[in-house]
DNA sequence: AAATAGCACTCGGGTGGTTTGAGTGCTAAC
DNA sequence: GTTAGCACTCAAACCACCCGAGTGCTATTT
């Protein structure tokens, strides 16, 4: 790919920024008068021809202004916005909101989604933190009523799973505590794998419960990620060229099918280093439904222990310069939260 | 309101049903040929004039067919669909899906939302079951790490709350169990009110924890309802006259603001007897955003103990005859589930 | 009296042609 | 290399027209 002259570079950036703001194709005249350039429209036109040939710009039709291509957006992102920081006042506002929220996963996720949505004017997505490798720390069995037993599993890494088990015969709380005690001694710090290979002697009731625990454990292992929180759906409709027709419908359809959404988030987030923000422009990699969308994704938490993904799904013509720093900043906040709340302190 | 002749009644119903299917204004000629009526178009026109004057029908413009008014839809619902049953095969399919799902609140809610959405072609809403009066059944304190303590509160009615508490000093699991033991003895079966008025002697650590428990209890009391699950967002876009412009945006905005959505659901559900289905047509009662929408709502669970709300939000021109039975049926299933899983058996 | 045939009338929506103007690419002059 | 000038393009807006579905009314039939 050929190099860009300084002038080409700045014209390109101007065009893209202007288009992101206005949503209208940008013409040469519009540029000079709006940004007080001291070069003529003709010169700009010449450069635009070059930029078009290089694949950064595109004309919707012959007698219209220029519009960025996917390549153009990528250039913008790579050049300017990836490392930008959120302005301090904004940081403080956001931080303040988190400090005020109740210390609860559900609250944090909801708030994160809401902050992302409002700052990016797009759809935000936040997955609940998820333990990457599951080791049982503590199991508690609580009799609720009849044959229903509540099992609470605390994992290393701080995740908590609660699950009702239905057992064959009603059992007293004392007996349950006894079983829990025994199970805890044997399984503390083990993964489901290791538990599976172990062979202890249990009586009928115990192995009954044990079986249920195993099923539950396995389930935890493959439910690759918690709830997905989202917010800002209505932002989608505010975008001119989206409000109608199938593009908005595509996005909503994606949200309806949690599984493929999860897959999408997961696969892109996996390519993202910790602290990095990954920008996927125009559904790269076969996500046909997202042709006209971009995603800004980041991971938070402690990779290998407990982590989650968050990000924003919006029109390709998105305010990257605001969105990217916001995503990064919120990711950092959530990372801190995970660190403070779920990770074993070094005693 | 004047009475309708038999013929007027059946013409009205035909018009409304036809409009619901086609979305197009219904003309007199269209009716006769489509439904093989042996009366002439002129007669129908005469009756239509009457129905229009009575407020059941409306003309989008002079030379167009008729379209139902809100009043018309209400008539349809009141006349035919309220007591209808879902066809058996459909019932079985749905039931089967529930039987196959994992016995987990999250799964049930998700499935219910999905079933409702797909059968009604609209947006479905399901709130997690919620205990109407909260009495502590069992409290468990589990040390996770450092100053973080996991509290698990099992309520009468089966709801479970887990919450991390941060305490002043690290404490051993034994000590925690001791405290939990003591707390359990005193508070079993009590509401937060009753606990508040009690006065026992506690040491520093205990009252520290106690305070946190109280805060948590109060929070549970006023968080009027659990998570709201929804599904079928993309259905909204499939409706012709909605896909564009502000109507769809309004609905999405409502979904973004969980609080007002919750309020809306709550207030309408409160007017609904158990086993009943409440149909709100055209945002009655000041819900301006819902002018063009209808909601079909029902409650499930055991009123006074543990219950939730579920329903469908869709265009006023909605397939009520399919939606209403579906909502009722799913509500019944969820009621059974609540009964089976959360309600104290009569031993 | 109720139902119907007949008919004039209305008006939204589709069709096709014209105009407008923003924006271009090119060429020639600076 | 830059710019002024200019012919050219083409989507969108505008307009006039027509078409036909559907109406309400009236006169006629049952």
Q: What does it look like?
A:
The structure is a homodimer. Helices cover about 50% and strands about 20% of the residues of chain A. With about 350 residues, chain A is an alpha+beta fold. The first copy, chain A, has 3 domains: about 5-80, Arc Repressor Mutant, subunit A (Orthogonal Bundle); about 85-130 and about 225-345, GAF domain (Beta-Lactamase); about 135-225, Enolase-like, domain 1 (2-Layer Sandwich), CATH 3.30.390. In chain A, the strands form 3 sheets. In chain A, strands 3, 4, 8, 9, 10 and 11 form a 6-stranded antiparallel sheet that branches. In chain A, strands 5-6-7 form a 3-stranded antiparallel sheet, with helices on one face. A two-stranded antiparallel sheet of chain A has the order 1-2. In chain A, helix 1 packs across helix 3 (about 40-55), helix 2 (about 30-35) crosses helix 3 and helix 6 (about 105-120) runs antiparallel to helix 14. The relative contact order of chain A is 0.14. The mean pLDDT of chain A is about 85. The interface between A and B is large, with 48 and 48 residues. The structure holds a DNA duplex (30 and 30 nucleotides).
Key structural traits:
homodimer; 347 residues; alpha+beta; Arc Repressor Mutant, subunit A; Beta-Lactamase; Enolase-like, domain 1; 3 domains; 6-stranded antiparallel β-sheet; 14 helices; elongated; DNA-binding
């Amino acid at each position: 790919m050929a190099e860009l002259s300084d002038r080409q570079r700045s014209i390109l950036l101007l065009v893209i920024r202007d288009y992101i703001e206005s949503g209208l194709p940008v013409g040469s005249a519009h540029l000079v008068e709006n940004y007080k350039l001291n070069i003529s429209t003709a010169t700009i036109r010449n450069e635009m021809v070059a930029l078009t040939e290089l694949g950064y710009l595109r004309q919707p039709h012959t007698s219209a202004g220029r519009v960025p291509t996917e390549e153009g957006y990528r250039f913008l992102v790579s050049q300017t916005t990836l490392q930008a920081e959120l302005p301090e006042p904004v940081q403080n506002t956001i931080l303040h909101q988190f400090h005020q929220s109740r210390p609860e996963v559900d609250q944090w996720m909801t708030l994160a989604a809401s902050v992302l949505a409002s700052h990016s004017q797009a759809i935000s997505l936040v997955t609940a933190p998820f333990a990457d490798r599951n080791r049982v720390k503590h199991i508690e069995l609580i009799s609720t009523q009849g044959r229903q037993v509540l099992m609470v599993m605390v994992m290393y890494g701080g995740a908590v799973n609660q699950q009702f088990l239905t057992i064959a015969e009603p059992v007293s709380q004392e007996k349950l505590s006894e079983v829990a005690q025994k199970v805890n001694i044997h399984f503390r710090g083990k993964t489901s794998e290791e538990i599976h290979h172990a062979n202890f002697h249990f009586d009928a009731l115990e192995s009954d419960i044990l079986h249920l625990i195993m099923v539950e454990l396995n389930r935890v292992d493959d439910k690759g990620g918690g709830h997905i929180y989202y917010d800002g759906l209505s932002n989608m409709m505010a975008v001119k060229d989206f409000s109608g027709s199938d593009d908005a419908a595509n996005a909503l359809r994606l949200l309806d099918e949690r599984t493929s959404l999860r897959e999408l988030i997961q696969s892109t987030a996996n390519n993202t280093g910790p602290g990095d923000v990954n920008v996927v422009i125009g559904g790269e990699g076969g996500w046909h439904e997202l042709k006209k969308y971009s995603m800004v994704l980041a991971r938070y938490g402690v990779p290998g222990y407990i982590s989650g993904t968050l990000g924003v799904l919006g029109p390709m013509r998105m305010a990257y310069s605001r969105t990217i720093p916001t995503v990064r900043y919120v990711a950092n906040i959530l990372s801190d939260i995970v660190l403070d709340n779920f990770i074993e302190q070094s005693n």
